[in-house]
Amino acid sequence: MNGYSLRSAGKRQGGQPGYMTVYLALVMGVLLSLILAAVTAARISTIRMHIECSADMALDSALAEYHREMLEQYELFFIDTSYGTGDPSYRRTEEHILSYMERNLRPQEEFSMPGARDITGLSACSAEILRAGVATDGGGSVLKYHVVEYMKDINGISLAEQLLSWGSRTEGFQGRDVEAEWDEAEAALKEEITRKKRLEDEEWDGDIPETPSDAVRSTRGEGILGSAAQGMKLSGASVSGTDGPSVRRLKEGTGLSADKEPADGLLANGLLYAYILDKCGYFGREKEEGALAYQVEYILQRETQDRENLRKTLRELLLIREAANVSFLFGSSLRSQASGAAGVIASILLMPEIAPAVETVILFAWAYAESVKDIRILLKGDKVPVVKTEGTWNTPFSQLLTYRSHLDSYGSAQEGLSYRDYLGTLLFLHGSDSAVKGLMDVMESDIRRTPGNGAFRIDGLIDGMEARITLVSDYTGSYEITRKYEYE
User: Fold this and answer.
1) Could you tell me the pTM of the whole model?
2) Which residues of 123-136 are buried (b: 16+ CB within 10 A; e: fewer)?
3) How far apart (Å, rounded) are the C-alpha atoms in residues 222 and 469?
4) Taking 70 as the threshold, does the pLDDT of residue 438 lie above it?
5) DSSP character for 409?
6) CA 126/CA 161 separation, integer angstroms
């Protein structure tokens, strides 16, 4: 017999009997196993693809919840992990990721899809953030990275290079206390006059005639704000200095991710300073909606009141201008005018040998008067060269004693630095670490003034995350996926 056959109990339509060979019966088991294995493999492949797509969409959706005010005011992308509650927590972001996963895994529950069936049986169990860079991590290094990247994108490199150049030019004048030198020279001169007079006249009453230097020195007590900003409208805004990011304990993240290079170096710092000048207010270009009007001055000084920040900033600029003006004046031909006046004073005192000392103190006084006028010029929106020439010197010797009455009498310089430019040089001189801390204070105080952000904390901002998501399928068991999404 060549084979076996099984006849069916019935007949096919048309009268022919149906049957199945033993070989076909044996093969059917293999075929069914193969089909079921293929279906299972397809289900597993679908599950994996569904998990990957859902995870990508969930994290992408989480990034889409960037803080609107941070973008609108400062053009930076960050996620606020407090979501308006004032209590930053990764847990809230994890809940948002989990919610998006559930929606993506079961779209039929979100949309009407007649006849749709779920062949994956997936549900998300948990989402855990493994890594997230907080804006304030590393003293603000995460924030600085995104600031620098933003400035690179908008071609701020040329301005950064200018700021670095100006900062380098003024750096040599920083740290020199010309007024202290002036006081020492004045004291030494008067001590010498007193000594010689007592030797010559035992009945001398100790009165020393005033010099132009004395008259100018007496005006220093007014302070630079009272002299240079007289008649100008000044801001009276103030902020609390007790809870800013620069003074309180901050929440910490994991810092910049390993694939991001920290924004270090001169060019990066220059881009940071350029960003601050672009986004923050200062005298002459106040940010009216800000908590403070003079925000750049705050970043430099970190006092709670606008006026105090302005006063300290102008004082720094005055010292820089004094150092520059003294350096010029002692080497210029204008010195001869001071020399002539010193000779006359020495002759009156019958002490020709003190003429050089008198000349020195007069030159210090003259440089001070010119420096006060320089600050006035800057506050009025004009420019002042870093190093003067005789053509850009604005205080004639004849006006030295009455210089405060002539502060608005000057020639506009075609070249030089504006008040904004000088602020950039001060940012350079103070350094990037201080600038970032002050910037964080300004950002937080400004955003807290906007609706719904009264409890905003900049240390609740993250620039992305690496998250691990755990899922389970009703058919094939549990799964785990890790995804990393960040703002670039």
Assistant:
1) 0.86
2) ebeebbbebbbbbb
3) 66
4) yes
5) -
6) 49
